[in-house]
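Many introductory courses stop at the sequence. We go one step further.
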Amino acid sequence: MNKIDQTILSRLQANAALSVGDLADIAGISKSACWRRIQKLEREGIIQGRVTLLNAAALDLSLTVIISIRTNQHNEQWARKFKAVVQDIPGILEVYRMGGELDYLIKAVVRDMPDYDKLYQQLIQADLADVTSSFVMEEIKRTTELPL
């Protein structure tokens, strides 16, 4: 990957709605060369997709929850069940299997505490040993842009 690819990726991360023409102008290359580079970056899996980021609070999803999970079951059958449960819960945005004291860390958004309780009731269908939830009071930094 060279400087032109990095420029294209950096600008697409900030605004995926930029036209190929605008990207080409920014990168200092032709439209067709820019399009070929974008297609190559997609084929290589560097660009995984393009999305529109929404304002959760404007959609009445103003409570962000960080959920820490410990399990006493470390087997493939339980892991499959857990993955199936979290995949089916719409408010869950991110799920990470962790090393260290926690087994899993989940980020979710909900409307309010009753909505969180509904999510929690769905989540415990996975037969969890310990669930601890923390509620975000202030979002200080959030980005989807990777450092290039």
